[in-house]
Amino acid sequence: MAETDGATASVEPLSTPSTDATSVSATAKPPPETQESIWLRRSVIVSFWLVVVLLGLPVWWKTTAIYRAELPLETMGAWAESKVCQPAFPLKVAVEAPIPAQDAQHLLRDTQHSLDELNDFSAHRLSLLLADAPFVANASQQIVTDGIAVDVSHDEDIALSVRLVPVETGHTPRSLLQPYSPRLDVYYGPSQLPTAASTGSPLATYIAEELHKLFGEEQALLAHLLSKTPGPRAPVAKRLSSGIIAELEHRSTRALKYAPTYHLTFSLFTPINIPSDWDIESALQRYMSPFLDSLTGIHNFTIDTQVQLYSGYTPTVRPEFDEQSKSWTLRKEDLSGFINAAEWPLTPSIGAGPTVNFVLYVPDRSQSPLVVKETGGNSWLVPQWGGVVILNPTEADEAAPAIMTREALAPAMHTFSTQLMSLLGLPQSPGCLPLRISTLVRVRAASLLFSASSTLGALARLYNALPSIPIPDKVAKSVDLTTEHLQLACDSLKEGRFHSALEHARVAEAEAEKAFFERSMVGQVYFPDEHKVAVYLPLLGPVAVPLIMAALKELQTTIRNFKARRSS
Amino acid sequence: MKLLLAGLIQLLLAHHALSEHTSNWAVLVSTSRFWFNYRHLANVLSLYRTVKRLGIPDSQIIMMLPDDMACNPRNIFPGTVYNNADRGLDLYGDNIEVDYRGYEVTVENFIRLMTDRVSEDMPRSKRLLTDDRSNILVYMTGHGGNEFLKFQDAEEISAFDLADAFEQMWEKKRYHEMLFMIDTCQANTMYSKFYSPNILATGSSEIDQSSYSHHADNDVGVAVIDRYTYYNLEFLETHVRDASSKVTMGELFDSYDPQKIHSHPGIRYDLFPGGEQEARKRLIMDFFGNVQSVEAEGAGRVNATEWEEDLRAIERMVEEAKRRHNATLAAAPQHASVIEEVKVMEGKRHVATEGAVRVDAAEGWSKQVVGFASLLGCAAIWVVGSWLEAR
């Protein structure tokens, strides 16, 4: 195109012999261009440019763009800073009193009053409700007092029921906590009931103090949990002493991260060929499953077992013989190296959830009894991993048994179950299993709430920090689900429906994890700018140069012509 | 003022308690293939033996080996890999677990491993299942250059990719502290772009410096180990004999001698909380070993009958709970949230059917439409052009 540009009249035909250059250029001047051909050339240039600009650029832009779904970043950030949800734990305590409703109301008011005075943790509040006493009215019947309907026998959200029992003898008031049902029996003398006129009675104060004590550990746990979350927390903060904080920290280091399913592995290791079998199935059935069943609302468990013969502990660990106690002793610092990680086939990576290992080691008779030097015990717990028990063959069975019976396994199973309790983060008090489990439900619900929120925050920060990772719509969907379930969980907590709160928090956590670990969110590999130039230049250079040159030349001509016309 | 001070001390104490780790993980990566890169695999296998010796179980070691030197036809000692000309120690042994092998060792897989963005069917043994209490040792070796490390002569990971991957790990609380070690040419450039906290990084050579092999085994026919790795291992073998060792990272770093290594090893402290001082105080075992704080329990005598009774009581309690639960279920058979769950699952399933498509083809239809439109546009322009010409 440019070569035929007659207006400039300065182009020499290339084939011209150089010897005769001047004469040829003088004689072979091309004829002036027709107006038509000029317009044709211009429309060709313009149409090329139009294709490039209107089609090429958008296609390039579209095909190299990284798809990033819209995420509700502000909401996510707000959740992460716990601005949206201030978790509260209103616990319902039902009181059964075999006294006239009016007196009971009076007692309740008094107790509630002193309870509120004792409480220094506003997010965790016990509220007393009057229940129908089973021995006064029919248990299945609902009673309505001041518009509050309580049906103790069916309501799972009642944390504890307090039963008042009048007695004539013994020291009163006294209380008895049922170990296997969430019930506190309070025995009182008839004179201790508050009268309509008096304010505050010893019985009310006593009940309040007892309740406060019962939920002390739970309050500490929750307060500690809340104190670790970011955002405004002044209203819920409860002052904990440094000793308690250290203890709680220690416990949280020990406990496993929450998972809906845990895989329990029970392994028998022995350096020789006996025992070659163990009656583990019936032992688990008898000693373990009741406890595991009681936790079904919180976790599921899968179990596998293995027997490994000729597998001794780590060879660098050398127990010493203690003459005094006639036993082989392991030093405490040896314990961490005791597990022969190089050879023992632990964590067989089966099952869906994280594995909790329980190792039963039966030492060789020549090295028995084998105990821990410092404590004299035979078991230890490895935080977030599992537990180890050394089961020394008893003196009685001289002919070492090839098969370990269920009874022989009983002590080890007992140790394992206590170890499992602390690995799961079950609180140590009060001495009532249902109460401890319901505490665990609340603690886990709250901690899942926080961890899902913090995952959301992390995702939001990454969204801003790494513009090169694609965000598919699935992520946005998961994020929406997460926030929705977080809100539901938070509302359930506030309403005191802790099981449903745990359920929602669990869904929220799972969705948040899914969003964060979305498979396609792996960013493009980083390319330095010189790489990009190197890729684009050979491709676009040959196309771009004639295009740009033609446009420039045409522009130049137009401007020159315009100037010439103006001056003439 | 006093109160404030007490509060501060308390905070510090709390923080100190937090700084415990409960598990150790190791990610050991060789990135080069082919027989003449024997030494890179030997480097990784030597590190593998060391961390295993110091107690990290196989389930917490992720090893990436792009080639199988032990079974290479050129290997005159089939089934073995040695890291020394004396051939005293067969690194391959009979108890090694390679998690990523051959063509599985890619930049993408490495980044997926670190960020745990893996498919659901990935076995747990091939995943880095760490949390905020895990210390991670990342060791990489191969051929590299300024701010990049080659993977299998086919692709490369840049210092930026690595830094971004670590940042994602930090955001998701996937590590407590990390030791990043790299033995490659211009290794120190690889950690220069890191910006996430709690990382201690060390490399074999400065920018524009090569990292050299230590010596060759004439029978094997190739170099068997790199210098930087060799002297690290020498220190670990001679000074860290068992899991109760109290040798610090500072001592390891002090043992680096540029004269012997033939390049200048670098150490980056500034990302570590407390800087150089704190980082140097960390034990070797904090990264290379698996020191667990165990809690020994006393010899409490178990009252067997009482315990049995307890168990029976728990059983009864569970029975009772179940009965009650069933009763409530019968009364209100469907919880609102359950129905919702089902819907969600259906949605997921629908999404899952298109999950097999690759990422970049995610919006396949729209792209196809665009492509078709552009083709059509070109054709139309051509037709118009020829029509104009014919006129």
TrEMBL record, chain A:
Regarding the membrane, this protein is recorded as: Multi-pass membrane protein
Which keywords belong to this entry? Endoplasmic reticulum, Glycoprotein, GPI-anchor biosynthesis, Membrane, Transmembrane, Transmembrane helix
Q: What residue stretch is flagged as signal peptide?
A: none
One Gene Ontology CC term in the entry: GPI-anchor transamidase complex
GO annotations under biological process? attachment of GPI anchor to protein; GPI anchor biosynthetic process
Pathway membership, UniProt:
Glycolipid biosynthesis; glycosylphosphatidylinositol-anchor biosynthesis
Q: Where is this region: Disordered?
A: 1-32
Where are stretches of biased composition, namely Polar residues? 13-26
Residues annotated as transmembrane: 44-61
Q: Where in the cell is it found?
A: Endoplasmic reticulum membrane
Q: Does the keyword Endoplasmic reticulum apply?
A: yes
Q: Which family does it belong to?
A: Belongs to the PIGS family.
Name of the protein: GPI transamidase component PIG-S
Q: Which organism is it from?
A: Sporormia fimetaria CBS 119925
UniProtKB/TrEMBL annotation, chain B:
- Check the UniProt entry and state the signal peptide residues, or none: 1-19
Q: In which pathway does it act?
A: Glycolipid biosynthesis; glycosylphosphatidylinositol-anchor biosynthesis
What does the record give as the active site?
A: 143, 185 (nucleophile)
Query: Cellular component terms, GO, for this chain's entry?
Result: GPI-anchor transamidase complex
What is the superkingdom listed in this entry's lineage? Eukaryota
GO biological process, any: attachment of GPI anchor to protein
Keywords (A to Z) from UniProt: GPI-anchor biosynthesis, Signal
Q: What molecular function terms (GO) are annotated for this protein?
A: GPI-anchor transamidase activity
PANTHER family for the chain: GPI-ANCHOR TRANSAMIDASE
Q: Which family does it belong to?
A: Belongs to the peptidase C13 family.
According to UniProt, the name of this protein is: GPI-anchor transamidase
What is the scientific name of the source organism? Sporormia fimetaria CBS 119925
